[in-house]
Amino acid sequence: VQLQESGGGLVQPGGSLRLSCRASGFTFSEYGMSWHRHPPGKGDEWVSTIVSDGEKTGYAGSWKGRSTISRDNAKNIVYLQLNSLKTEDTAIYYCAKNIDSGFSGYTHRGQGTQVTVSS
What we know:
Layout: E1 2-6, E2 9-11, E3 17-24, E4 33-38, E5 45-50, E6 57-59, E7 67-72, E8 77-82, E9 91-98, E10 106-109, E11 113-117
Parallel strand pairs: 2-11
Antiparallel strand pairs: 1-3, 3-8, 4-5, 4-9, 5-6, 7-8, 9-10, 9-11
């Protein structure tokens, strides 16, 4: 299993970023995928999950209305659109392969991509 995130960077408060995660080494369309983040000095936080066929999604409370998760099963990519970013959103964001097709824990995660929100 390999998960490679991209799309992070430095953005001003109020800005947007689109993160991507390219997956390989497993049958992507059979697994739910999730995004998590690790803010500096804090523990890991769940951000969002999308089920295997993309029909259902879920978001942590602070991300409802500010983010959109999507996936392209033909390309083995899961995306996370982040909007209205705040300084406290600064973190390493990583994608993960869930245990099954739905909302579950994860078995593998990528190295992550740094998102820094600062003026």
